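Exam revision sheet. Question 4 asks you to relate a sequence to its structure. Input first:
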Amino acid sequence: MLKPTYDLPDLPPAAAIETPAVLKALTRAHRYLAELKGRAATIPNQGILIDTLSLQEAKASSEIENIVTTQDELFQLNAFPENPGSPAAKEVARYRDALHHGFREQVRLGGLLTNNMIIAMFRLLKRTEGGFREVPGTALKNEGDGSLVYVPPQDANAVRDLMSALERFINLDDADSDLDPLTRMAIIHHQFESIHPFPDGNGRLGRIINVLFLTRCGLLDIPILYLSRFITQNKADYYRLLQAVRDTGEWEPWLLYMLRGVEETAIETLRLVEGVRMLMADTKRQLRDNHPKIYSQDLLNNLFRHPYTRIEFVQQELNVSRPTAAKYLEELAEGGLLLKHRAGRNNYYINQPLVALFMEREG
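Answer key, C-alpha cells:
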C-alpha cells in the first residue's frame, strides 16, 4: 500500500495563520463580497442568478479538469435535456445539478453542509452509487511528466474519520471559531483536497463546497461566487500552493491566494450581476413599450432564467396554454427581442444580449 506523504493537521491548524498580510487581504475580500451580496439582492428573482451563474461555474470548473464544452452546447442542452448532447456537456450539466442539489439541501437543513450532502453531490456528478474511497492506491501525479506529487490517506477508516472531523469544522458556529469565515473556507478547501475522499471529482466537489460554505456563513444569500475561473487563470499557482502547505506547513501564501481569488471573483461577479440587472431593466422597458399586452414579470424572468428558452418553458412558468406561449415567443422574435432558431422539429429562442454578456466574460 502507498504511504501517505502528508500528515493532515487537526482542525483548525495549530499554527498562527491569520498574519498581518492575511488580515489585510481579509478586509479587502469582505468588502467586495458584501457589495456582491447587496447587489445580487437587487435582481427581482434570485433563481435567475442561481440558474445562469451556476451553469457558467459548471463550465469553468470542469475546464480545470480538462472537460471542455461551449456556451452554445450548454444552453442547447439546458433547453433540450432530452437530446443526447456531447459527453463533456452532459458532465458539465451534472456539475450544475450537483451544485443545485447541495444548495437545496442546505436550505432544507437550515444551512448545514454535511457529508451526506457531499456524497449525494458526488453521486450526481459521477452517476454512481459509490461514496468515500474504500480501496487504497490513489496517488496524484504531475500531468506533465507523470511524477508522483502527493499520496492522500489510503485507509478507508482514516478517510471517513478525517471527513467526519472536516464536517464538524465546516459546521462550527462563527462564535465557536476564532478564525474568520474566509480563512476557514481556505482551510476547508485545502483539507478536503488533501483528504481526496472520492475516487474522482474531488476538485469540482471542493469548489462547490467553497460557495456553499459562504452561504452557510451568511456571507452570501445565494451561491453566486465561484472561484473556478480564477483558478483556471492561475492554475499553476493553485497546485503549487496546495502542495507547498503539505511540504512546509506554511499557510500564508495559500491563504493569500484564496483571498485574492475571492476579491477578484467578487469584483468580476459584481460587474456580471450589474450587467444582468441593466439588461433586465432594458428588456423590461422594451416589453412594456412595444409588447404591453403580453408583458409580465414572469415573462421577463423566463427570458433571463433561460438564455435559450422554448415554448414549453413559457407554458409551464407562466401557466398559459401552448398556443399562447408560442404566440408570445413569436411576437418577441418578430419584434427583435429574441432570435428564433430551430433544432430538429423544435424551435428555441435566444436572449442574444444575455448570451453576449456571458461570451464577453469569457473573452
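Marking note for examiners. The CA atoms of residues 141 and 148 lie 5 Å apart.
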